[in-house]
Amino acid sequence: MVAGLEASGHLRPGPVGDAFLAVRREVLMPQAYVRRSRPDETPPRWDLLDWGVPADREELLGLLYGVESVLVQHDGEPVLGRVPAPRSGGSMTAMSSTAGMTVALLQRLGLRPGQRVLDVGTGAGVTAAVACVIAGAAGVVTVDRDEHVTAAARERLALLGHRPTAVTGNGQNGWPAGADYDRIFVSYAIPRVPEAWPQQLAAGGLALATLSTSSPSWPGLAVLTRTGSGRVTARLEAVRLGHRAGHGWSQLYLKPGLRGRIEAADGGSTRTTHTGPPPDDARGLWLALDHLHPGLVRNWAADHLVIGAPDCGSWVTARPDDSGTWTVTVCGPRDIWAEIQDTATRWQAAGSPSSYRLHLEPDGTQWVSAGSGPAELSWQLPAALQPAVTVPPQAPEPTPAPKESTP
Questions:
Q1: Reading across the β-sheet that carries 326-331, which strands appear in turn?
Q2: Where is the composition biased (Low complexity) (predicted)?
Q3: Which of 56, 181, 275, 390 places its Cα 20 to 30 Å from the Cα of 196?
Q4: Domain CATH number, residue 328
């Protein structure tokens, strides 16, 4: 796994790679789920693979040291003492994120011995284990909202020789008892920055968290730093991959019915144009589109541009042809193609940014901006997190991209 991460460019030689080599994932995740049902099949079906079952070991090793996320908890169940058996219905409620994204973010943190580290969203305990190896367990706090996840991580980290402070609580509150932290790592997406995280940063500290709308297609990375004088600065970087939505926050996806209508071009209006869609690597533009015109989801599995709006059923597709023109089909009450072109114009006027200023005001207002004057491109972040049902992480559409790339 480590050799593959190095070959793909995700991982550089150094302490993070050394820590990954030292962390035995089969100890942290002696059980993991594998989906047995088709992506659109309901109810979904999983098998729980178990390291104690010799027949499961080869498949389990493939999951643990592969490129995909590892599912470790179903419907909030106790994690310790489970009997391996099929599961049906419900959803997966805890997971270990993809290794490529995890190592890239951990390298970005620049962990060093002796630092105090807050790991928000314990999951399987991988990031906590890496932090213990590099920084030392005495300064590591890992917090998760689920007591079963916390209990399993505490026991399994101890088997690896690490005893960080593993606590159960709302990650948005951080963990004041262990502050101030030199580094804060957040393993789920947020719609705005909780007040506690910048407050609990030490001077010179750094916090990283995925900041997103309800769409998983164009995530941003919130980068928070505290200067030696105590001032917090923040920016939002457009990235290719991000963590999934946290507990209580719904995430959009393209349901089978809408995907079928898009594939059949059912009711669409078609035009030919010499203006194609913005390139995929213009991530700052797509991030702006996601916030200025929310509610859109891209089907990254398609070989051409396919974007839908699940709430109203609107959609757009764009296909290139051999003559250098594009065939664009739009459908529904929203003209998504016009929204894309409008955002492109505003983004270019603002200087085609890939990173935005993230403003955290004393009154709790949070907003994002780039450029200045009449050309400024800006938007406000939501005032509060609205309770909702989280889309299960095994759903196929929320995966941000078919191939992994460094955030």
A1: 269-273, 326-331, 314-320, 305-309, 297-298
A2: 383-392
A3: 390
A4: 3.30.160
Domain carrying residue 15: 2-94
Q: Is residue 355 part of a domain?
A: no
97 is catalytic: yes
| 257-310 confidence digits (pLDDT tens) | 999 999 998 788 999 999 999 999 999 999 999 999 999 999 999 999 999 999
Q: Note the Cα 221 to chain centre separation in Å.
A: 9
Instruction: Examine residue 214 and state whether it is found in any structural domain, yes or no.
Output: no
- The better pLDDT of the pair 252, 59 is held by 59
Lookup: tokens for 219: 């995530």
Contact 297, 310 (CB under 8 A): yes
Q: How many domains does the chain have?
A: 2
Contacts of 215 (CB under 8 A, 6+ apart): 251, 252, 290, 294, 295, 296, 297
- Report the Cα–Cα distance between both ends of the chain, in Å, rounded: 18
CB within 8 Å of 330: residues ≥ 6 apart:
268, 269, 271, 314, 315, 316, 336, 337
Question: What gap in Å lies between CA 271 and CA 204, rounded to an integer?
Answer: 53
Q: What distances in angstroms separate CA 66 from CA 23, 60, 61, 207, 283, one per listed residue?
A: 15, 10, 8, 27, 27
Whether residue 404 is predicted with pLDDT greater than 70 in this model: the reply is no
In a domain, 59, yes or no: yes
